[in-house]
Amino acid sequence: MLHKDLEMDDTFKHQGWRQQMIKKLREKGVFGEDVLRAMSQVPRHLFLETALDYMAYEDKALPISCGQTISQPSTVAFQSELLDAKPDMKVLEVGTGSGYQTAVLCSMGLRVFSIERQKDLFDITKDLLIKLQYRAKCFLGDGYAGLPQYAPFDRIIITCGAPEIPQALLDQLKVGGVMVIPVGGTHQEMTRIEKHGDKPTDLVIQHYGDCNFVPMLNKLDYGAKP
Ligand code: SAH
């Protein structure tokens, strides 16, 4: 994997591409300035292999290691917007992947706890986030279980497709909290849940259209090594 260990450059060329990306996102008229400002600060190309550099600021999902994908910028903006988070809130992210969404959440001033199930990806991304000085706490673990030791969370964001809303994660969401989760099989529906109390009838669930994430799987993957 050709992550840029030494050349962490954010050149004028990349900055220019990024401003173009932000301009296009702004033209869609659905994302708030807080989210756009955060995304304008995160060098997405550094979360990709060097060979994909020139595509980093197109509105595309792209391959990362371990057969996974980095979400497309408009999806990252959309999930971040739906979270409706305020600085200093405690956020649980399931599916660290490349770490790009994690970095955007950090740039929004949130305290981020992120879980990844694939050891190889976890190792690469944890190091990258440290190098880029994003202060997320990264965990190798099963997102279905969440992080009960750090609960409750103000916000929970899931960046893989869940067959259903995991009860353990609902339990770890504060009353008054919001969860954003793609729910479904091969295709999912972007779903936003507001938790107004502890009973199932206290959940306000809204749907925001079709989306297409890699699946949320339920076993840890320690990589290909024997
Ligand atoms: N936000 C990431 C998305 C990566 S793809 C990015 O933009 O790069 C989704 C990630 O979820 C993958 O890395 C996959 O390994 C991870 N994942 C799938 N099921 C999981 C689970 N149960 N717990 C934690 N991570 C999981």
Q: Quick gist of this model?
A:
The protein has 226 residues and is α/β, with parallel strands linked by helices. Helices cover 27% and strands 24% of the residues. Helix 1 (12-27) runs antiparallel to helix 2 and helix 2 crosses helix 4 (100-107).
Give an overview in words.
- The protein is an alpha/beta fold and 226 residues long.
- It has a domain at 66-211: Vaccinia Virus protein VP39 (Rossmann fold), CATH 3.40.50.
- Helix content is 27%, strand content 24%.
- The chain has six helices and nine strands.
- The chain has helices at residues 12-27, 33-41, 73-83, 100-107, 119-131, 167-171, and strands spanning 62-63, 69-70, 90-94, 111-116, 137-140, 153-158, 173-184, 188-195, 203-211.
- A seven-stranded mixed β-sheet has the order 5-4-3-6-7-8-9. Strands 1-2 form a two-stranded antiparallel ribbon.
- Helix 4 (100-107) links the parallel strand 3 and strand 4 (111-116).
- It is globular.
- It starts with 11 loop residues before the first helix and ends in a 15-residue tail after the last strand.
- 40% of the residues are buried.
- The mean pLDDT is 93.
- Bound molecules: S-adenosyl-L-homocysteine.
- The site of S-adenosyl-L-homocysteine has 25 residues, from strand 2, helix 4 and strand 4.
